[in-house]
Design a protein that fits this description.
This protein folds into 4 domains: 206 residues, Nucleotidyltransferase, domain 5, CATH 3.30.420.40; 172 residues, ATPase, nucleotide binding domain (Nucleotidyltransferase, domain 5); 127 residues, Sandwich (Substrate Binding Domain Of DNAk, Chain A, domain 1); 99 residues, Up-down Bundle (Substrate Binding Domain Of Dnak, Chain:A, Domain 2), CATH 1.20.1270. Helix content is 37%, strand content 26%. The strands form 8 sheets. Strands 1, 2, 3, 4, 11 and 12 form a 6-stranded mixed beta sheet that branches. Strands 15-14-13-18-19 form a 5-stranded mixed beta sheet, with helices on both faces. The protein is elongated, with a radius of gyration of 30 Å. Helix 2 packs across helix 3, helix 11 runs antiparallel to helix 12 and helix 12 crosses helix 13. The chain has 13 helices and 29 strands. The protein has 627 residues and is of the alpha+beta class. It binds adenosine-5'-diphosphate and magnesium ion. The site of adenosine-5'-diphosphate has 21 residues, from helix 5 and helix 6.
């Protein structure tokens, strides 16, 4: 990310200012903020109808089709746990098979897409998010007295893939919010802190929310930020701490209660009580988990030490993610100048201690960690809407995974590498595999591995009407373009005719919870095997091409006179040896057989080429005469 600030000569007057908002569409809580409605230019959170700063990301649908969003929806959870939709962000852009079974509300799959079953009918995750966004929009208008939202910057986790980003944009459109752009949450936090006024150096943004953990490494130099690497875990957050408290309390206490098995509703109550206790432990040495369960009241005092012991493994996992990000960027923890804390869960004493201990650097924590993302988004929205004309901020993010194409033999050719700053555009030339090939299948994949089978398939499309040419002669230029929101467009153009085809990647499903982390991990674990597999596949591809060319040449009656019987026999033996080597799939033998065949056929190939050239020249003359 680069953050370039240029001072502008004149500020627009109050009347000229347009109302733009920043929205943190959180898994647990959502916020809306603006920098346009206040005099001192500082972004401010716009409160809910009841005066709260955060809107719980919870939606309750009524039979008549109306919906309740926020704290009032959450309150319905006690009586009707299945009817209150929370953490819908986790379902955005996901296929039914990608998501786990730990959702307390009911959903079903329709053509692979998730449909949440509610009293008002089936709802897609995009529709539910749209209802949250509509509420935020109404809240922003009511709090500011403005008539319309001119534009919104909506934040998404750095890990969100194309499908998840697209789903977020769709939800905004449904809610009637014009999206100025999507912004990575850690990037927004850096903007809120205005770290561009800080000393040059490296900064970490550590964001532990309710359901997700994101970490980003930013480099600041001469007031410009660049994201060097991002990482995290989409299935790790404050909720997991609640769950561990609930489980441990259940073990400790429930033996004394008549019924040891808990209903779903019991677990919800216990987890909610655990969350209250967790938050209390941030300021107190002990807290009591009090929950009214079906079998009776559960009351259990827990100490900060117990809590730390139960949840230490979670905190350690966040530090492991930090270590990975530093390793990706080849930076050591001691080189980091400061750490920005984001997300309500970073209030936990044990988390702060672990972060402070690992980085041993200044913690940036004076802005409310719940609000910092929305405030940064609001600042950015204010610039993008044009309230600071001349003061242009250019924010660049990075691609979290490499993007590439399937090539011969199921190999991946990476076009845009992981951690490339976006927006970005890369082009590469490809060619046809067979003589007279008039169509080409373009298969776009995402991931770090060498083989298509080990990467994630994003989209396929076909470029047709390629002029029929000999294999390897057509020139197909493939362009990959990733826009500022991280959305990918791919185009393929045949260079002589200009025919082209393209696709906006909008896959119908997203990565599963652990898939992202697994994909990265697997890339490291299998790096050696992958390289071997790639070399083998490349040798196979080259061999098959050689076999194809020689088979064709030997069958060509015009070339028969160019070849002695002995030479023909040597080439035939070489062909047989290479075919046999291919069935054994041993790299060394394939290469040896291929080189041998190239040697014994080299003179024949040379004679054939000369004959071709002579024929071509002769043909040309006849044409010339004909004219
Ligand atoms: P999200 O980004 O997922 O919407 P937030 O940044 O709002 O999440 O963080 C929500 C999490 O922060 C919840 O797990 C909540 O329990 C936790 N949290 C909020 N306040 C505190 C506190 N005082 N102590 C510990 N955890 C807290
Ligand atoms: Mg958050």
């Amino acid at each position: 990310m680069a953050l370039v600030q240029l001072t502008e000569p004149q500020e627009p007057t109050a009347q000229q200012r347009r109302f733009a908002v920043g929205i943190d569409l959180g898994t647990t809580n959502s916020l809306v903020a603006t920098a346009a409605a206040v005099d001192n230019d500082r972004p401010e959170v716009l409160p809910t109808a009841t005066g709260a700063r955060m809107l719980p990301s919870a939606v309750y649908y009524q039979q008549d089709g109306a919906c309740i969003v926020g704290a009032a929806a959450l309150a319905k959870r006690q009586q009707e746990p299945h009817q209150v939709i929370t953490s819908v962000k986790r379902l955005m852009g996901r296929s039914a098979e990608d998501i786990g079974s730990d959702y307390h509300y009911h959903y079903r799959a329709e053509e692979g897409m998730v449909k949440i079953i509610t009293a008002a009918g089936d709802k897609s995750p995009v529709q539910v998010s749209a209802d949250i966004l509509s509420t935020l929009r109404a809240q922003a208008l009511a709090a500011s007295g403005e008539a319309e939202v001119a534009g919104a910057v909506i934040t998404v986790p750095a890990y969100f893939d194309d499908a998840q980003r697209q789903a977020t944009k769709d939800a905004a459109r449904l809610a009637g919010l014009p999206v100025l752009r999507l912004l990575n949450e850690p990037t927004a936090a850096a903007v809120a802190y205005g770290l561009d006024n800080a000393a040059d150096g490296l900064y970490i943004v550590y964001d532990l929310g309710g359901g997700t953990f994101d970490v980003s490494l930013l480099r600041l130099s001469a007031s410009v930020f660049e994201v060097l690497a991002t990482g995290g875990d989409t299935a790790l957050g404050g909720d997991d701490y609640d769950r561990l408290i609930a489980q441990n309390v259940a073990q400790k206490v429930l033996k004394s209660l008549p019924a040891a098995t808990l209903s779903d509703a019991d677990w919800l109550r216990l987890t909610a009580a655990a969350r209250v206790a967790k938050e209390a432990l941030t300021t107190a040495a002990t807290a009591t988990v009090v929950a009214e369960l079906e079998a009776g009241v559960c009351e259990c005092e827990i100490s900060r030490e117990e809590f730390n012991a139960w949840t230490q493994a979670l905190t350690v996992r966040t530090i492991a993610c930090c270590r990975q990000v530093l390793a990706d960027a080849e930076v050591s923890a001691t080189e980091v100048n400061g750490v920005v804390l984001v997300g309500g869960a970073t209030r936990m004493v044990s988390v702060r201690a672990a972060v402070a201990d690992y980085f041993a650097q200044q913690l940036y924590d004076h802005i409310n960690p719940d609000e910092v993302v929305a405030l940064g988004a609001a600042a950015q929205a204010d610039v993008l809407i044009g309230n600071h004309r001349g003061e242009s901020w250019l924010l660049l993010d990075i691609t979290p995974l490499s993007l590439g194409l399937e090539t011969m033999g199921g190999l991946v050719e990476k076009v845009i590498y992981r951690n490339t700053t976006i927006p970005t555009e890369k082009h590469q030339e490809f060619t046809t595999h067979r003589d007279g090939q008039t169509a080409m299948r373009i298969h776009v994949v995402q991931g770090e591995r060498e083989r298509v089978a080990d990467c994630r398939s994003l989209a396929t499309f076909t470029l047709s009407d390629i002029p029929p040419l000999a294999a390897g002669l057509a020139r197909i230029r493939v362009g990959f373009q990733v826009d500022a929101d991280g959305l990918l467009s791919v185009t393929a153009t045949e260079k002589t005719t200009g025919v082209s085809a393209g696709i906006q990647v909008k896959p119908s499903y997203g990565l599963s919870e652990e898939e992202f982390a697994n994909m990265l991990q697997a890339a490291y674990t299998h790096a050696h095997d992958d390289l071997q597999a790639r070399r083998l596949q490349e040798a196979v591809n080259e061999s098959e091409e050689l076999l194809q060319i020689l088979d064709k040449a030997l069958a060509d009656a015009d070339s028969a006179h160019l070849l002695s019987a002995a030479e023909r026999a040597r080439i035939a033996a070489g062909l047989a040896r290479l075919r046999e080597a291919l069935t054994q799939a041993q790299l060394a033998e394939i290469n040896a057989a291929k080189e041998h065949l190239q040697q014994v056929s080299a003179e024949f190939a040379g004679r054939r080429m000369n004959a071709d050239i002579q024929r071509a020249i002769a043909g040309k003359k006849i044409d010339d005469i004909g004219q």
